[in-house]
Amino acid sequence: MNSPGITFEGSATIAGASVLPRIALDVAAGGWTCLLGPSGIGKSTLLRLIAGIADEAEFSGRIEASDGASLGGRVALMSQSDLLLPWLSVTENVMLGARLRGEAPEPARAAALIDEVGLASHAAKKPDQLSGGQRQRAALARTLMEDRPVILLDEPFSALDARTRAQMQDLTARLLAPHTVLMVTHDPSEAARLGTAIALLEEGGLRFWPAPPGAPPRAVTDAATLETQGALLASLRGAAEGAS
Ligand SMILES: Nc1ncnc2c1ncn2[C@@H]1O[C@H](COP(=O)(O)OP(=O)(O)OP(=O)(O)O)[C@@H](O)[C@H]1O
């Protein structure tokens, strides 16, 4: 799979109010870029702009793929709200993309992914019969099913308990290894485990942070990973205190 990098330069407003400060971000091809920052700063807006669905925002700038081709049809976004269709089962939700595009469904691949996210015994259930964490795993399976070169993840593991979260991080890192990933997270340990690049989005713009050495997913007990986690948390706290 040819997974392009992304160059993003610009800012966005809604009705004249800033919803994303002016930033320049290079998302490395085949890398896993983690984006942290305070609530309301514009992280989801950035993902929606790259996905081409931020119709509500006025964007000024440029968004380009490193191979020069259009990003259209090459991006999958897992948004913060799971957007599962309530009248479809987990299996039908996971196969929804193919159905919407009029393509042949792949039930065996869907079943394998549903099994990998730990929902095999829930595959026939509707979203309102699932817990928040189960819904999030169903949405993750649907995103992985799309298998696009560029994957945008908006707090994909936020509703999961610590053990399941670590398992889903491992699974996602394995399945998305050749892809270009941009992930929003509030969790410094997640960024330290998974990021090949780490950026903090703040009022003043982006601040880049060195990722720990080694390929993700890094062990939760890895010393350099723990050190990065601690330093990131301290920096985020410092930024919050500076803003208050
Ligand atoms: N439809 C909308 N109309 C007006 N303002 C909006 C709209 N959607 C988002 N905003 C505003 O845009 C800003 C950025 O929102 P965004 O969801 O991108 O932030 P975020 O960094 O992802 O926050 P969080 O971490 O809480 O998810 C916020 O101030 C929000 O109130």
UniProtKB/TrEMBL annotation:
Alphabetical UniProt keywords: ATP-binding, Nucleotide-binding, Transport
Domain ABC transporter: from-to ranges? 1-228
Tell me the PROSITE patterns matching this sequence: ABC_TRANSPORTER_1 (PS00211), ABC_TRANSPORTER_2 (PS50893)
Which InterPro entries does the record cross-reference, listed alphabetically? AAA+_ATPase (IPR003593), ABC_transporter-like_ATP-bd (IPR003439), ABC_transporter-like_CS (IPR017871), ABC_transporter_ATP-bind (IPR050166), P-loop_NTPase (IPR027417)
* Example GO molecular function: ATP binding
Query: Quick check: keyword RNA-binding in the entry?
Result: no
Please name the SUPFAM superfamilies in this protein's record.
Answer: P-loop containing nucleoside triphosphate hydrolases
Q: Hey, which family's this protein in? A: Belongs to the ABC transporter superfamily.
Q: What is this protein called?
A: ABC transporter ATP-binding protein
The protein's organism comes out as Roseovarius aquimarinus
